[in-house]
Amino acid sequence: MRFLSIISLLVLSLNLTAQQNFTDRLTRNVAGEGMVTLNQDAEINALVNGTPQVRTPRSLSQILGQWNDTTAINDTITLAPTRRVRTVGYRIQVFAGGNNRNAKSEAYRMANLVRSEFPELSVYTHFISPRWICRVGDFRTNEEARTMLKKMRETKKFREASIVKSQIIVYQ
């Protein structure tokens, strides 16, 4: 009886060590079944299969220097910590309406229009009693705001935009 217990434990342990990980079982090729192809990052593979990986951070110039269309960046990029600071500056107001539902939808429509035309700008849509406001950008100087306002008016979609003094968010 003891002999059978030892043999069954041995067979069970061999079976456990021969098990494949999740992605290997998913991508195995079985006759008569479809085939699955996985393209995933090494970090995702380690997370799914439980195999930890340690990667050394490299500089951004090293990573981008080795970049081409056939390789993927598998390195972590470490950046200096940044702090959000509120200060007085300028924003461009592209919409100021009433306090009704139509004004709210128009404010959000203008916000989406700015995002599509100028994706680099921050957009702020909020209710300042008694009206809905849509403002864009975080400009430290009036000259920066004036330059962007000129570009926005050239599109002929923001003719009523104006520069307003406001609290802005800068990163240090």
Structure described in brief:
By secondary structure, the chain is an alpha+beta fold. The protein has helices at 2-17, 22-27, 42-49, 60-65, 101-117, 142-154; strands at residues 84-96, 123-128, 131-139, 162-171. The chain folds into two domains: 39-79, no CATH class; 84-171, 2-Layer Sandwich (Alpha-Beta Plaits), CATH 3.30.70.
Which parts are unreliable, with pLDDT below 50 for 5 consecutive residues or more? none
**Basic shape:** elongated
CATH topology of the largest domain: Alpha-Beta Plaits
Mean pLDDT, all residues:
78
CATH architecture of the largest domain: 2-Layer Sandwich
**Number of contiguous helices:** 6
Regarding CATH, which class of the largest domain?
A: Alpha Beta
Largest sheet: 4 strands, antiparallel
Into which percentage range does the β-strand content fall?
15-25%
Terminal Cα span = 74 Å
What order do the SSEs take from the amino end to the carboxyl end, as H and E?
A: HHHHEHEEHE
How many domain units?
2
The gyration radius over C-alpha positions equals: 29 Å
SS-based class? alpha+beta
Instruction: Name the strands of the widest sheet in spatial order.
Output: 2-3-1-4
The tally of beta strands, per DSSP, is 4
Helix content: 25-40%
